[in-house]
Design a protein that fits this description.
Helix 1 links the parallel strand 1 and strand 2. The chain folds into two domains: 215 residues, Carbamate kinase; 77 residues, no CATH class. By secondary structure, the chain is of the alpha/beta class. The chain is globular. The strands form four sheets. It has an eight-stranded mixed β-sheet, with helices on both faces. The chain has a three-stranded mixed β-sheet with strand order 8-4-10. The chain binds adenosine-5'-diphosphate (ADP) and magnesium ion (MG). The site of adenosine-5'-diphosphate has 14 residues, from loops. The site of magnesium ion has 3 residues, from loops.
Length: 304
């Protein structure tokens, strides 16, 4: 059964880690060990986020001498696909008993008139003082917004992904039994009319759902750092959902149980996938990936 598995940030960096290379190898090889057991008889495409890594690169660009060019955000996204794709490919391939693992740089189209381009919502990279923020806005045309946690941060558009340009190749590789790593960091965004790359960060869960239904996957699995989807999360009356239909989940979504930027996009991705394919979507903890795939832990979203 063709399965798309989306990895959350905790597969690459655990809470409290600084991101040294030793920590990265340690975390990614632990995730790979769990995945290798879950993937034994499964044709799969693995996707991943890039939040901390893209932020790190943007910070590094800021440290360059003033006369050196800053690379655009879309290139930073591409760099994180190589970076994380390599870590996953290298550690997984050593555990998969001869099965090939291949990371594919992936582009995702977005609409030029997506409302996010006139009203960007996604904060990325470091925090700046008001004075620095003014300079960066002037020098690079960035949009910076005051962050609730103090200071200013760059905000970028997070447009809805429309099409995965490499989808047909990814499908062929996965059907041949190769484990493919794709749409890293939500994919490298390009405009859908001219294919011109554009500075934006596409949500990885939405891009994973798009890829999954495009290549005819029967299952979308989103692995993260909580036991599943909860109602009243972190509040009195918190309850973990085990099995839920799309219509029940849509109702809960409208009631505001799933905040943007964390559980919201996962639930939206699951709803979209199940509605389009009548397959199932699974959201659960990475450290129990085998059971999440089998549907014995986490939350399963079913048609209906
Ligand atoms: P990832 O890196 O896997 O995408 P996120 O931090 O974006 O992880 O999303 C997972 C987080 O969503 C959990 O750690 C949890 O704190 C938060 N969350 C918010 N609302 C809910 C909810 N209703 N049910 C479960 N988790 C929730
Ligand atoms: Mg996330």
């Amino acid at each position: 059964m063709l399965t798309v598995i989306a990895l959350g940030g905790n597969a690459l960096l655990r809470k409290g880690q600084r991101g040294t290379i030793e920590e990265q190898w340690d975390t990614v090889s632990k995730a790979a060990a769990i995945l290798s057991r879950a993937l034994r008889d499964v044709n799969a495409v693995i996707t991943h986020g890039n939040g901390p890594q893209v932020g790190y690169l943007l910070e590094a660009f800021e440290m360059l001498p003033k006369d050196r060019p800053r690379q655009p955000l879309y290139l930073a996204v591409a760099m994180t696909q190589g970076w994380i794709g390599f870590l996953l490919q290298h550690s997984l391939s050593q555990l998969m008993g001869g099965r090939e693992v291949l990371a594919v740089p992936t582009r995702v189209t977005v609409r030029r008139d997506d409302p996010e381009f006139s009203n960007p919502s996604k904060p990325i990279g470091p925090y700046y003082s008001e004075e620095e923020a003014r300079r960066l806005a002037r020098e690079f045309g960035w949009i910076l917004k005051r962050d609730p946690r103090g200071g200013y941060r760059r905000v970028v558009p997070s447009p809805k992904p429309v099409r995965v340009l490499e989808a047909a190749y990814i499908a062929r590789l996965a059907e041949a039994g190769i484990i493919v790593v794709a749409v890293g960091g939500g994919g490298i965004p390009v405009l859908d009319d001219t294919l011109e790359p554009v500075d934006a960060v596409v949500d990885k869960d939405l891009a994973s759902s798009l890829l999954a239904y495009t290549i005819g996957a029967r299952r979308l699995v989103i692995l993260t750092d909580v036991p599943g989807v909860a109602v009243n999360y972190g509040r009195p009356g918190q309850r973990w959902l085990t099995e839920v239909t799309v219509s029940e989940l849509k109702h809960l979504y409208r009631m505001g149980h799933f905040p943007p930027g964390s559980m919201g996009p996962k639930v939206a991705a699951a709803i979209e996938f199940v509605e389009k394919t009548r397959g199932t979507a699974h959201i659960g903890p990475l450290d129990r990936a085998l059971e999440v795939l089998a549907g014995t832990t986490g939350t399963i979203v079913k048609p209906g």
